[in-house]
Amino acid sequence: MHCIRRITDDLAWVGANDRRLAMFEGVYSVPYGVSYNSYLLTDEKTVLFDTVDKAVRQRFLENLSEALGKRMLDYLVVQHMEPDHSAALMDLLDRYPSMTIVCNSKTLGFIKQFFNADIDSRVKIVKEGDRLEIGKHILNFIMAPMVHWPEVMVTYESTDKILFSADAFGSFGALNGALFADEVDFDRDYMDETRRYYTNIVGKYGTQTQAVLEKTSAFDINMICPLHGFVWRQKLQDIIGKYMLWSSYTPEESGVMIAYASVYGNTENAAEILACRLRDKGIRTTMFDVSVIPASEVVAAAFKWSHLVFASTTYNAGIFVTMEALINDLTSHNIQNRSVAIIENGSWAATSGGLIRDKLAKCKDITFISDVLSIKSSLKESQMTEMDALVDALAASFPTLPTSTDNTVSRPVEIDKDTLRKISYGLFVLSAKEGSKDNGCIINTVTQVANRPLSVAIAVNKANFTHDMVMRTGEFNISILAESTPFNIFERFGYSCGKDCDKFAGYADSSRTANDIRYLPEFTNAVVSAKVTEAIDCGSHSLFIADVTQAFTLSDEPSVTYQYYFDHIKPKPGLPKGAKKGFVCKICAYVYEGDVLPDDYICPLCKHGAEDFEPL
Ligand code: FEO
Predict the structure, then answer these.
(1) How far is the CA of 500 from the centre of ligand 1 (A)?
(2) pLDDT tens, 24-75?
């Protein structure tokens, strides 16, 4: 019986799970199973992205047949020829006689190596940057060599902005009914398996992975569909950020991973003492007995932690078997950019430490923290000074926060809100569109937060109607105001509520960006369009993190700062005629008439509280 999940109106998951596989690729245990993902895109033409492993072939064929209904399959895009994704290729050629295989020339060579079939007449060869229109959907092909095999390519569907990412962004673990990463507690339940998958399968090819990340960063991506594991439709930056770290061999966590190989427990004892002493110094530790923990887990941990300690007994005048396998595994996965310490044990001729060091010394950017700590059979009290020296050397290699000195003076706790006015701010028109409603407001907090992906953060007062529109639609424009902006622009967008009026009424220019949201072409030196990836509740305001989708410059005029606005644009406040006493809002110049300003008073224009008023 078929078992499919719909991703969009046009896209269905037709893959399958395998929970009986003992060893993935014959090497990696998969205690939680594995999914083989295949996706059917339905348009004027029908397109399938990859097939599955032979173990789940039957279920996959049923799924595909159900998802196609009465239609035929027009295209099979082969992004990766490894047999866990191509085992059903010949079945499809037989079942769908008009189907064309879309692949690159290297893939075609691999198809001929794996199968005996004359398929040239049924193949469409694509190369970097080629496009294939299948109706309203357009497929863009991007070569991704060595992520994980040389023929790998990924596909960007530019209408719905979906990246079919082949092995990239995949994970071990069956899907268990969930298909989207946001349907599960991903960090708690799947991040470790995702790291283990990347580091062991693709970890050696960090440079190539970085190249693909760079190429795909040019695209606006709404969804990532990998060949294993979950589909990403929210918080894409979470997984992309991890890939940035892993592929650049940057540690995720500061702390010490201790891997040890011990025959009778004495090397283990030394490793435990080291771990305890490091903890005494507040340094995080994790430990692996490499004789019982699969190497793939230790490799994954080595990619995670900043400091690595290897403790091994000597065996057959060399490194203990399981430790030697681990060290070979790590070097072949290109481990680099780590601080390393080594403990060796040997009852008569200890050699393991030096041999481990020689192997790791060939890796890039490995810093050895100290000389090898060599023990004979077991650690003795007389060697505790050496152990302490190792602990101190490791501790000293962690960055330390500056500590206060005796001659510093502690200020009493106080919060002077005017202090925050020393922070430099700009002034911007934030605009949004919901249905046919255009709206905008003035905000003062916009900042770029990352280069890759190019992203910004904006803070918006929840009392603004534009805030609610951005929250609901997930898109906005920022018009960066210039120094020539007249006060009436601030009045128009800052002194009324979009719920009650059309803030663009009478505004002559109706320019819109590609997201169909209005912007201010006048008095604006640049415009940024962005799509929200995360909204953080900060109390009075929401902080929106958003990927930049469009950005252009309109003039070289300086941007208006908050200070410039106060000094040169905002009219000087004065009491209305006949009024005796009043308070002026320091933010927008609204004047409250009266002898006493209520503590809970909220400015009707800019929504700031009584603390932002001063007596006139
Ligand atoms: Fe899941 Fe490289 O294949």
Answers:
(1) 56
(2) 999 999 999 999 999 999 999 999 999 999 999 999 999 999 999 999 999 9
Stated pTM of the model: 0.71
Query: Measured from the CB, is residue 166 less than 6 Å from ligand 1?
Result: no
Instruction: Encode burial over 239-260: b for 16+ CB neighbours within 10 A, e otherwise.
Output: bbebbbebbebebeeebbbbbb
The alpha carbon of 258 and the centre of ligand 1 are apart by a number of angstroms equal to 30
In this predicted structure, the answer to whether residue 403 has a pLDDT above a threshold of 80 is no
Distance in Å, CA 167 to ligand 1 centroid: 5
Q: Which has the closest alpha carbon to 147: 79, 58, 60, 70?
A: 79
How confident is the model over 100-121, as pLDDT tens digits? 999 999 999 999 999 998 899 9
Beta strands in 153-222 (DSSP E): 153-157, 162-166
Could you read off the pLDDT of 353-375 as tens digits, one per residue? 999 999 999 999 999 999 999 99
Cβ of 227 less than 6 Å from ligand 1: yes
Closest CA to 589 of 560, 614, 568, 559: 614
Closest residue by CA, ligand 1 atom 3: 82
Is 80 close to ligand 1, i.e. is its CB under 6 Å away? yes
> In DSSP terms, which residues pair with 313 in a beta bridge?
345
3-state DSSP helix/strand/coil percent for the chain, to nearest 5? 30, 30, 40
